[in-house]
Task: inverse folding
């Protein structure tokens, strides 16, 4: 498949800023999608609200851009009504972990066959750079002008604890590893979660002395530590994520029974 | 298994779920809430048997979201809730209106605000149903008053949701949902399915036909549908800044319902020539119905649908009668709309009998109010 068959050119120009990590993630996703042989006409892309949630609008497939935080709930309805379709969710840290946190943990627990890709840029980019649930402690945003008093969520560890079938975290610096993990995720049934730590030079880097996208990528490179070699045990991850250390790697890959394998999962979309 | 034609003695909520299955519902997502829970419990066993999917979700926001998603998958979809759940669903209801998604929402109303009276009837959600989400939009809402209507109007709710691609409500209450009564299931039931897009021409779905409802693009059929809550052009291009595109879109979403009011609205009239007319709906109409049946001086206009506001029948009775009494189980939510229409139609006086607390106004209370008005 040609990469331009993947994109929906009639929606261009896109909204992403120069230096944004979303393009890198789309590119990695496209390569993985092509490799596993999925078909655009058999795939539905679902998202909530935010910069990363605009991605489905640029993919040449069925796409539903929903309300803030609820993409996983919408995707659950789509998958259960049409189990033969592949359903992919693109979301961000605010969409998934803050307003949509309840759907995220319950999605992991319910284990419907969905592939969820969260582009975590540590900030609310679309609204101009407010602190998110993954903004590192002491970092600057428009709503934390004196440094973030709170500590960030570790989304990937939450997914592991909540029961997701497959969990991996990479950064936009790890394009090969990320592509391989997306391949693994697409090939796997159940609720699969990939967190991609990504750069927002406009609204995160600029206020934190990393206005150049390459400075953020350099930071990702220096801070990334494989989860099995991380300095601290999982119990301390909550303080460490991004503030000095980004644990990366394939966190878990297990074979929990998927929700609709249990119920039989026939298609309900036809014959009404 | 679909319910067979014949006579039954059922609960209102049971009639609703039987009708949903018969109307072709294939997806339900719900969250336990009094007094609507029986619908979720019933459909949990009925829907899988009918080849559908039942899902209990983490909250009502997830329920309505999953229901909208399933509708785009092509399944006729329904959720059931009560006031607090309706409040949580509001953002997604606006999303369903904006994206023209057929969904059926059963609201078995209880006393509010807040937790209020979970086990008692009210009509407190009338305005929340129509105006609860932000922006200008329309919904369709039916107001059953007995077990038979819980059945008939649920079938209609699916049909109108599909026909107009709009969120459609059954505004029942604890009284109607829990009452037991006779249900006749007819031999033939009219089922309407959504107009699906053909794939001859890629932009065909977005040509707005005369009835203002574009054909539906079910996912997974090669349409490459783009669904978004952002202001979009007829060809689903995102255009949040263009005033004209926004005006055209929102105007059409409203016009497709209000222009078709005559097709949508349902009502019944007892004693249309009476000097005093009661206007009521749902369980608030019980008392008025009894009075109107026995007294020639008093008639009843009972609205079986309340959104879009049934302007035509209200005008009709208001232009003939001397005074009008609106009976509601809230502090007057539909009263102002009815009063405006009635005064414009030449009716001289429009009074309100409102009763909250859980019990419908009794015939005695209605008579008392009518005596105050000099009607009897």
Result:
């Amino acid at each position: 498949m040609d990469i331009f068959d993947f994109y929906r050119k009639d929606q261009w120009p896109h909204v992403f800023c120069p230096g944004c990590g979303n393009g890198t993630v789309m590119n990695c996703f496209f390569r993985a999608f092509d490799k596993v042989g999925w078909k655009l006409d058999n795939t539905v892309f679902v998202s909530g609200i935010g910069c990363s949630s605009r991605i489905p609008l640029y993919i040449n497939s069925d796409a539903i851009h929903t309300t803030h935080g609820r993409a996983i709930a919408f995707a659950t309805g789509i998958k259960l009504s049409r189990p033969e379709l592949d359903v992919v969710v693109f979301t961000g840290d605010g969409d998934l972990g803050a307003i949509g946190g309840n759907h995220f943990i319950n999605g992991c627990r319910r284990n419907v066959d969905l592939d969820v890709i969260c582009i975590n840029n540590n900030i609310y980019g679309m609204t101009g750079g407010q602190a998110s649930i993954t903004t590192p402690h002491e970092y600057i945003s428009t709503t934390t002008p004196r440094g973030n008093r709170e500590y960030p969520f570790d989304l990937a560890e939450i997914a592991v604890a909540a029961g997701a079938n497959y969990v991996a975290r990479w950064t936009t610096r790890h394009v090969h590893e990320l592509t391989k993990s997306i391949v693994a995720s697409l090939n796997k049934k159940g609720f699969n979660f990939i967190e991609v730590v990504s750069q927002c030079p406009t609204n995160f880097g600029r206020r934190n002395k990393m206005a150049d996208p390459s400075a953020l990528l350099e930071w990702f490179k220096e801070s990334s530590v494989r989860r099995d070699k991380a300095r601290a045990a999982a119990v301390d991850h909550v303080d460490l994520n991004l503030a000095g250390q980004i644990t990366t790697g394939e966190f878990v890959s297990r074979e929990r029974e998927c929700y609709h394998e249990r119920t039989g999962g026939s298609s309900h979309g036809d014959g009404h | 298994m679909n319910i067979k034609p014949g006579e039954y003695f059922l609960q209102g909520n049971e009639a609703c779920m039987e009708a949903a299955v018969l109307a072709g519902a294939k997806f339900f997502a719900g969250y336990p809430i009094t007094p609507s829970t029986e619908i979720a419990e019933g459909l949990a066993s009925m829907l899988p048997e009918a080849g559908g999917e039942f899902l209990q979700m983490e909250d009502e926001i997830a329920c309505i979201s999953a229901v909208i998603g399933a509708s785009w998958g092509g399944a006729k979809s329904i959720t059931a809730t009560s006031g607090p759940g309706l409040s949580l669903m509001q953002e997604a209801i606006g999303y369903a209106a904006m994206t023209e998604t057929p969904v059926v929402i059963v609201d078995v109303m209880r006393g509010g605000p807040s937790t209020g009276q979970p086990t008692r009837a009210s009509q407190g959600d009338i305005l929340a149903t129509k105006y609860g989400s932000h922006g200008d939009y329309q919904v369709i809402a039916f107001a059953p008053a007995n077990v038979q209507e819980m059945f008939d109007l649920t079938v209609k709710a699916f049909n109108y949701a599909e026909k107009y691609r709009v969120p459609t409500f059954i505004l029942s209450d604890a009284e109607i949902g829990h009452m037991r009564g006779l249900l006749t299931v007819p031999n033939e039931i009219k089922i309407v399915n959504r107009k699906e897009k053909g794939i001859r021409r890629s932009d065909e779905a977005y040509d707005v036909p005369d009835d203002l409802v574009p054909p539906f693009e079910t996912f997974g059929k090669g349409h490459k549908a783009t669904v978004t809550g952002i202001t979009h052009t007829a060809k689903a291009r995102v255009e949040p800044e263009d005033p004209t595109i926004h005006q055209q879109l929102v105007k059409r979403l409203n016009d497709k319902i209000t222009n078709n009011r005559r097709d949508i609205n349902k009502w019944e009239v007892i004693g249309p020539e009476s000097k005093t007319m009661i206007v009521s709906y749902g369980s608030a109409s019980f008392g008025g119905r009894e009075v109107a049946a026995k007294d020639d001086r008093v008639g009843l206009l009972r609205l079986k649908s309340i959104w879009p506001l049934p302007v035509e029948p209200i005008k009709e009775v208001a232009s003939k009668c001397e005074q009008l009494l609106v009976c509601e189980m809230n502090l007057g939510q539909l009263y102002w709309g009815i009063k405006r229409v009635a005064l414009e139609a030449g009716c001289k006086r429009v009074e309100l009998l409102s009763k909250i607390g859980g019990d419908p106004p009794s015939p005695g209370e209605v008579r008392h109010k009518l005596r105050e008005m000099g009607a009897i």
Observations:
- The mean pLDDT of chain A is 91.
- The radius of gyration of chain A is 18 Å.
- The first strand of chain A starts at residue 43 and ends at 47.
- The longest helix of chain A spans residues 22-36.
